[in-house]
Write a structure and sequence with these properties.
Layout: E1 6-13, E2 22-26, H1 27-36, H2 43-56, H3 62-75, E3 79-81
Antiparallel strand pairs: 1-2, 1-3
Pfam families: DUF982 (PF06169)
Protein name: DUF982 domain-containing protein
Organism: Mesorhizobium helmanticense
């Protein structure tokens, strides 16, 4: 499993008040947001990053990464729609 690993349903986030909403369709998008936009090191962020990596390595499936990403986005208060 390489390349785009799509979520069954997209996740909508807004990483700052000045930015527009972003629609996250896949594990690559989620991982990029976790790395570039969420700056606080939390357990939920770390778990989400690890889960995305596991999906990209073919060791788990996209729904696990989606759940972890949603939890991290909710904690960071950037989740707009699940």
């Amino acid at each position: 499993m390489t390349g785009l690993i799509r979520f069954e349903r997209p996740v909508v986030v807004q990483v700052s008040r000045r930015s527009s909403e972003r629609i996250v369709f896949d594990v690559n998008d989620a991982a990029a947001i976790l790395l570039r936009d969420l700056h606080h090191e939390t357990d939920k962020r770390r778990i989400a990053m690890d889960t995305c990596l596991q999906v990209l390595r073919g060791k788990t499936h996209p729904p696990a990464a989606r759940r972890a990403f949603v939890a991290a986005a909710l904690e960071a208060r950037i989740l707009r729609s699940d």
